[in-house]
Amino acid sequence: MDEDLDPGDENVNVVLAQESSELFHILSSQSPDVIEELCLMMPGGYTWSVDAQLEAPPRSSAAGIKDVLDYFITAEATDCRNFLQSMCILCENIPMRLESRLMSAAGNANNVCENSSPAVTNEESSSSHSEPQLIKRPRIDYWEQYIAAVMSSLLRRWERLSEALVKEVQLENVWVNLRTATRGRDRPDQTPGPTDRGSRTPEPDGDFGSLESRVTLETFLQGCAGKVTVLVGPAGSGKTLLTSCLGREWARNLGPIPSSRLFVLLEFRLLNLLSSPLSLSDLLFQHYLPPKGGEEEKRAVVDYLLSNPEQSCWVLDGYDEFNSKLPRHEVPGERVDPENPLPVANLISALLYRQLLPGCTVLVTCRVRDVMDLDDVSDKSGQLMGWNCHQIKEYVDNFFGVKGDSTDRALGLQAADLLLSSRHLLSLSYLPALCNICCICLKHLLLEGKESETTTIHSREDEGGNETRRKGTGPEPRGGREDFATGGTNDRDQPPPTQVLIPATLTQVYLNVLCAFLSRGPDERRKAVKAKTTKSSKSPQRTVCPLSALGQYRSELCELSRLAWKGLEESKILFLKEDVPHNVLDFAIRTGLLSQVELRLDNGTPAYCFIHLTIQEFLAALRIMTSKDVSDQQLTKRFSLKTRWTTRSERRTVFTDSLHLYVCGLASRDCTQALVQLTRASGRAGAQSWVQTRQALVLKLLKTLCLSNTLTGPKILELCQCIQESQEHKLAKEVVGTRCTLELRNIHLLPKDIDALAFVVNSVGDRGIGLDFGSCSMEPDCLDVLPRCQFIHHLSFRRRKYGDRFAEKLSSVLPEFTTLRKLEFCGSSLTSTGAACLASALQQCPDIAEINFSDNNLKDEGIKHVADIFTKLPKLVSVTLSRNKSSLKTVDYLVGKMSSCLNIQQVHADAKTEVKVTFSQTSDMEGHKKTEATVRLLNQKWNKPEMQKVANSLACCPALSVLDLSGGQWNVGTLKTLAQCLPKFNVTNEIILNGSCSSVEDLVVLTALLSHCPAVIELHIRLQSDPDPVPVSILFSGGSKKPANTKTLCLSCCGLLHTDLTRVWRSLGKSCDLTELDLSSNCLGNKGLRKLLDVLPCLSNIQEINASNNSVSMEGVVMLADALCSRNNLAEIHISDGGREQVILKFCSDQRDDKQQLKMFRIRNSSLRPSDVTTLCTRLVQCGSSLELELCLCSLSDGAIENLLKVLPKMALLQRLNVSSSITSAAGAVILVRCLMDIPRVTALELRPQSESFVHFDRVKAEQVSCRLTHFNLSSDNMEQLIKILQRVPQLSDLDLSSNKLRDEGVKRLVDSLPKLKINSFVNLSSNSLTQQGLLDVAGSLCTCVDVSAVEVSLGAEERCLIWFRQYGGREKTLSVRDSGLEREHLDRLAEIVSHCPRLTKLEFKNNSLQPEGIEDFVRELNVGQSGCSISFDECWIRGAKAVSLVCRCLELKHNIQTIRVHQTTLHLVLRESTGPTSVSLADCAVEGRQLSPLKSIIQSFSHNSLDAEGVKSLCSVLPSLPKLTSLSVVSKETCKTVVEKLSEALLHTTTVQCLNLSGHVMSDTATQTMIRILPRLRSLNLSHCSWSAAAGLQLVKALGQCVSLEGLCLDTVRLDGNSRACLAQVLKKIPSIRSLKLNKVVAVGEPSEQNSVLDLLAALEQLTLMEEIELDGWMMSDGVEQLIRCLPLWTRLRKISLSKNLISDQSGDKLLEALSSCLHLEELDLSSNRLGDLTAARMALVLPSLTHITVLDISENCIGNEGSVNLSEAMKSMKNLTKIHLTSVGTSELCAVAAGLAHCPLIQDVGLGWNKCGDDVVLELARVLPSCHNLTRIDLESNSVSVVGVESLVKVLQSCPALQLIRLWRNDVSSVEAQRLIAKDRRLNFSST
């Protein structure tokens, strides 16, 4: 060493010259005082001023130091020695190596006091050197002594370790992948300068997995001085061995760590034992190496270390084995007191965070999982690389050569061949520790095989380790490792073959290794084991290791596995002597399973650890699988997949996370017997069953993970390894069954990982699977293993470090993926060289469909290589080549390829990002017409020659669907070149030039295409589109949605001025055939509009012009009005905001001057002054065609309305005036109402302030007019003016003044004027805040106005007030009052009003909160005329006793009550001049029999629906005491037989009953006998839904023959057998008095006998000539209807016939309708649910007009077509009395004609059109006719195809339909949200199913 040289051996001046560069840097960092003192040693004349130097620039200070050094380099030797000695004493931070050399060259320290320089004469200065000199020299000596001791210690340590080494460790043969450090915070760089390091500049950082970033460990550590360096590696990669090797190299003055620095090697696993706080000196001297001297030496070493921290190198090994995480220090630069005791974690953290010994060198080793904890502190990090095949082979040769004798060497040759030919063992051996384990395993197996004297060698893989290969479904093993292994042994002497069953999994390897270690046991037991093994080998078993060995030592193994499990639970890897039983400890040390660890504890207690962490984890797994002490819950808790993505919050563990792998491996069936042997150590019975149960639990946990869809890539890989260990192919299928692609993102992959993937992937079968290696670092050998993955259809590689070398390697294996359909090689460094390799390989992949080489560096040449294989890949679908630095050559080449490769579907080339080619499949081209291709060349900045070149290529292309050249931003010349070439292009749909047109000049160039290129249909340009590119689209016939004979020019947002239009017209040419022109959003103004109108004669085919947003003013609007009048083909003009926004002109093709042509002038959202209205309307007076004028949202003032009213009479052809939302004041609305009297042509006026408002006109004088003025706040003055106007209107059909806040006063004023108003239909005064007083005023109109026919008033939530007028000659008057809260005084007033109205026929009171007294008073005061009056009171309390009491009181108070009836909660009275009541009835009003006593003398009818047993008893008791009771109805839903028995007995004594209803009862035979006695006196009998025995039924039917006076018979749904039906046919012939017959569902034709019964019954009907009502639903009579038809001419009194569900055909229906023509009194016709069609509908058109009394028509569920609906609508024109029509599910949606026919049915109330799929057209027609249907109350439109548009049209007209109560709209094309919105507008809309 330099320090040992004699001073005389080196010239002191030479030494100073050699070290001057480094000394210059050292002196530059010293204080000015030190520099000044050193300068004073120079000869006189050189002075140094501290103050001056502080102010001087840095260059002057450096110059002074350089002068000093230059002087002493050439000075006398004595002066130079004195200078060096003084400098070493005065200066700080001189490296020890340098200081030692300088002091040695300077000679004896005594010379320091000798100052030969004449400049040094001050004694004080000289004496000041003596004290530091005496202190510093011993400190250096102690430091050097301590370094020497450390060197000796490290060399001894290496000697112990090297005894077990197979091969010499050489740092230059250890490879590291560089990793970019992630710094979590900024901290000052404490690294010394280059002169302090004495080494090379470090290599640049890289990242994992790149061949380019690979360096040797020695190179990696160069330049690590003063930095924190992290060395990462998996467990078993040799990190601990390498740190010891670094220590040896340092001790030998070799390697990257200078020997002058202190080398401190600490192991984290030993630091775990330090529980007490300690200082830096405690850590160094108590737990590393104590000095030989005493406290003085310790102090000196520590002082020197603290003063020179850069002189130390701290190697911290195995951070992954540290029990706790290092605390983070958030405060940068904060120092830690080295004397202050701290926890060991804090002490190490301070060292790493530079809070302790800043500037020292730190090297930390850890596993990859824990490197994130060190990212904040690491300056440099790298990962140890695994071994390749050559290194593995070298190690195997050394292993067997070193450890064995000549025989072992022979076995070693076999072992090397076997290992290198076994893909599984080879993939394990990439790590040194696993390679060692594999060698131990192979040696043991080979030796065992040798002793068994067998003759063959085979791998377990050949026996069945790989299911797929054994079945012969996969490719044969390829060259590579197998070839290498074979070639490596051909020149050797082959040893005798040995039978070896190679372990298939890592777990089985460890099990064999365990047996190998056990073979080192005691001699006697070992011999016994061998004997058993030899014996058992004669009959080979399927086991993974000799069972005898496990059984022989199972007690010791049980104890060791318990120890391993305990350590795993407690995160403990070091065990003290007391932790292990003595005999087990001796056994474990002797077999090598445990090794002793050197500790420095106070008590000297030794510690032990397993030879490797994986051995401890394997033994712990054995414990799990063999011991009942480990519960299922503990196993489940421990069983989880480990991710290779780590986070700071993840719980730390000192182990390798391999436990779950071993557990899965032990769950394999191959390990069952071994586990059983170990389980028997506990003496437990049923060991095999228990083991199999535990194995099943593990497999169940694995299956759960297989089915999970939330696993990340690392966990999927872990799962594959677990499944491979378990050797369960079913589980492998579960993994690939739920995933089409395995995504392995950002993982460092090793060959063993690929091997595990292959095991799983190969189970997928022909279905195929994908592998995505996104950002994965991959060992080169991985690609050799990758072809083992069969059935791969998708491969993806994405990583910047993948380059040509990787691609070349991949190309060599790519042809083996015969099922590959998609290859992605993206985000890499691929060039044309690599692309050529891949392209060549892809030609051997016949199924390849997708290729993605994006984001590489292919350039034009590389893309050409790929494009050249297009024609060689028949199944190609897409090729993506984006971001590859390509140029125009690429574009031109790809476009040119379209001519030779006809299946190219699209070429997409974006100069900024993307290049992609897609293809159509050959099968598609053969079966169908080939679809035109698409070319998209985006953002291409071409000049004129380049454009010409590309255009020539495009012209040669086959037919293109779309050509997209967007983003070019070319100049005018380039654009002209394109325009000239464009007619040569074969484009069928569209050319897109977005961003390629920037000026009006460019626009004019493109506009000419409409004339020069006839194929162009549409041209769209929008110059102002910031920030988006200018959209330019040229459409051809194939891409346009418009007819081929049209041409469209859209120049919207182009900034065009009126002067630019001339250039545009010129470019279009003289014979322009434009049909649509869009000039919106330009700057044309009124002048531009004038130019546009002037050119209209030249635009002969124009259909629409859009000139919106062109700053047109009212002057331009007037010009447009003139144009509408003068241009015959101009049909519509739409204007908004006075012309500033919308201006649209629409034209018609018919140019004839025909007044029938309808024109429209629409101006919306504009501010119109009165003068503007006058000017505009005056111009429109000149219009010679029918006109619609729309002035919506225009806020017309009263003056404007006055002016409008003045001009309107002159507009003779005006059809409609729309002023929606334009008249907001009540005064303005009243002004416009004047048109009703000024203009006789007005047919309807409807005004609302915030809604639709319009005036309709007719061509001639209107007969009547509708006036609706709603939602205005009409004042009294307004009302006065309005009434005056209305009085002058000739005839009003209806008047709607609802929602006008009229209140009582306004309503009274109108009511008083009613006699003077001519109104036909109704007046609507709803929602006007009426009170009871207003109600009385409205009711008074019944008396004051003769024409008022009805008044409806409701003061409830839905305030309603309607006054109906007499129609069609009726004289009756009605009054309905609901929800009005009437008091007695109100009733008194109403009684007075009604009494003065002699024509009042009906009074209805409902829910008015009336009390009995009020009703009684009303009845008392009421006087009616001779015509009589019907009165009803509906209140919830009218039930039971109160109902009876009320009836009695009314009868007492009024003697002219003719009929009184209580039904449910309603009291019905009929008052007529007579002598007394003729009918008193109670129906379903909860009256019990005992409550009838007050009425027993007068009650005539009683009905009850819910009598219980007591009620029946009570009723029966009073029935005999009711002398006038003629009608009794007791309906039941119960099955009690006694009810009828009791009633029938009571009825025997009640002889007055003539009408009897016993529906729903069960009649016993006893009751039947009694009933037979009652029947003869009955006139009406209802036994529907009754049940009885067959005999009883027959008796009842026979008894009917005695009912000679019977007029009504109802037997609906009763069960009659054949005899009863035959008897009924005979009986009916005997009862000619029957008028009503209801036999619904009495018979259904199923058998011929039933058919005969039907015919007999129908034949019997011929005798019933008095028939008025007949119902035969559900007979299924089919052709039997012919018999019925013969009866119809006899039934001249027939009013109702119902034949639903009778299978009546269309032909029979025709005959039926013809027969019905004789039933002139027919009112109801029900033919629903039959098979009627258009023939029957045609007959209806002929017959129904003659049946003038028809009120109900139901033909639902038939097959009426469009023609039939038209015929039916013709019939409806004559059905003036029709009130109900149901056409539900009639088989056609074309019901517009029927809807229109409703206008001819003035009394229609109920319309059913559901389940017909009717669209909006039907609803729109309904909306048109609804206002004329004043009585309509219900419309059913459910289950149709009505949209929001259709419903909106209904909502608009509902205000004109006050009588309408419900519109059913369930199951239509209206969303729930829209439905709620529409319901909010009108609650009569119902979208629910009920």
Provide a descriptive summary of the structure in words.
- It is a single chain.
- This protein is an alpha/beta fold.
- It has 73 helices and 61 strands.
- It has a 49-stranded mixed sheet, covered by helices on one side.
Give a brief description.
The protein has 1890 residues and is α/β, with parallel strands linked by helices. It is 40% helix and 15% strand.
Write the layout of secondary structure elements.
Elements: H1 12-18, H2 20-28, H3 32-39, H4 50-55, H5 58-73, H6 77-90, H7 96-106, H8 123-127, H9 130-162, E1 175-179, H10 194-197, E2 214-216, H11 217-221, E3 228-232, H12 239-251, E4 262-267, H13 268-271, H14 280-286, H15 295-307, E5 312-317, H16 344-352, E6 361-366, E7 380-384, H17 389-403, H18 406-421, H19 423-428, H20 432-451, H21 460-465, H22 467-471, H23 481-487, H24 506-518, H25 523-537, H26 547-552, H27 554-569, E8 575-576, H28 582-591, E9 594-597, E10 607-610, H29 613-626, H30 632-638, H31 659-666, H32 672-679, H33 687-706, H34 713-726, H35 729-737, E11 741-743, E12 748-749, H36 751-761, E13 769-774, E14 777-778, H37 780-785, E15 792-798, H38 804-813, E16 822-826, H39 832-842, E17 850-852, H40 859-867, E18 878-880, H41 888-900, E19 904-910, E20 915-919, H42 922-927, E21 933-938, H43 944-955, E22 960-964, H44 972-981, E23 987-992, H45 1000-1007, H46 1009-1012, E24 1016-1021, E25 1032-1036, E26 1048-1050, H47 1060-1068, E27 1076-1078, H48 1085-1094, E28 1104-1106, H49 1114-1126, E29 1130-1136, E30 1143-1147, E31 1158-1164, ...
Parallel strand pairs: 3-6, 3-7, 4-5, 5-6, 11-13, 12-14, 13-15, 15-16, 16-17, 17-18, 19-21, 21-22, 22-23, 24-26, 26-27, 27-28, 29-31, 31-32, 32-33, 34-36, 36-37, 37-38, 39-41, 41-42, 42-43, 44-46, 46-47, 47-48, 48-49, 49-50, 50-51, 51-52, 52-53, 53-54, 54-55, 55-56, 56-57, 57-58, 58-59, 59-60, ...
Antiparallel strand pairs: 1-2, 1-7, 8-10, 9-10, 18-20, 19-20, 23-25, 24-25, 28-30, 29-30, 33-35, 34-35, 38-40, 39-40, 43-45, 44-45
